[in-house]
From TrEMBL:
Domain ILEI/PANDER: 83-169
Organism of origin: Nothobranchius furzeri
Signal peptide stretch: 1-21
GO molecular function, one term: carbohydrate binding
Official protein name in the record: ILEI/PANDER domain-containing protein
Keywords: Disulfide bond, Lectin, Secreted, Signal
Localization: Secreted
GO CC term, one of those recorded: extracellular region
Pfam families membership: ILEI
InterPro entries named among the record's database cross-references: FAM3, ILEI/PANDER_dom, ILEI_FAM3C
Protein family according to the UniProt entry: Belongs to the FAM3 family.
């Protein structure tokens, strides 16, 4: 009997947890979510958006990006990929405009550059790394991401973990990000550093308040 899409996704998640547990140990699985839930630790004021970002864990568990407790990118939706995962949304209405991922190990950086240049002024931009986000990055791509508010992008390296909330123009009041360097001496997952999580509350445009 063919399995439903939801059941297939659930089975894949179970396998991911088992594989990751064998790779890095069960203790390392505590503190983050590999399913479709968005684990906001703080309650969001009514006049704000809430963003929850979780980088990938090693090369096993994909990243997660949530908006207002709704999963936008993640393994359950089967729309996360190796490299840099990006969500853009309208800074006034909160409407999701685009989701995509760009392989920065075996892919073409020009595809990422084209996407970054197409981001509309006033957009909020969310990014999360998975496995390897930096090999193919060049100066132009790094500058375009820096222009969105990132400072860590200038030093983002091989297999670093990274999450970022920024914007083009004045779409966010201030950018936020977390970045952990790949360091064999301190890595949590053998050849990868620990994953990073970020919770951000961004003030809605006054015209959008009820």
């Amino acid at each position: 009997v063919p399995l439903s899409g939801f059941l297939q996704a659930a089975l894949v998640l179970i396998l991911l947890v088992v594989v990751l547990s064998h790779m890095i140990g069960p203790r390392a699985l505590s503190g983050f979510s590999v399913d479709g839930t968005c684990l906001m630790k703080k309650s969001c004021p009514y006049d704000h958006y809430s963003f929850f970002l979780q980088s990938g864990a090693a090369n096993v568990v994909p990243p997660k990006i949530c908006i207002n407790n709704n999963l936008i990118v993640g393994s359950v939706l089967n729309n996360a990929g190796v490299g840099i995962n990006i969500v853009t949304l309208n800074g006034k209405t909160g409407e999701v405009l685009n989701t995509d991922h760009f392989d920065m190990y075996g892919g073409d950086v020009e595809t990422l550059i084209k996407f970054l240049k197409s981001i509309e002024t006033g957009s909020v931009v969310l990014m999360a790394s998975y496995d390897e986000p930096a090999t193919k990055l060049n100066d132009e791509a790094r500058k375009l991401i820096a222009d969105l508010g990132s400072s860590a992008i200038q030093t983002l390296g091989f297999r670093d973990t990274w999450v970022f909330v920024g914007g083009k123009g004045t779409s966010v009041k201030s950018s936020m990000e977390k970045h952990v360097k790949n360091d064999q001496a301190s890595n949590k997952y053998d050849q990868w550093p620990e994953l990073v999580q970020l919770e951000v509350f961004d003030l809605l445009s006054p015209s959008e308040l009820p």
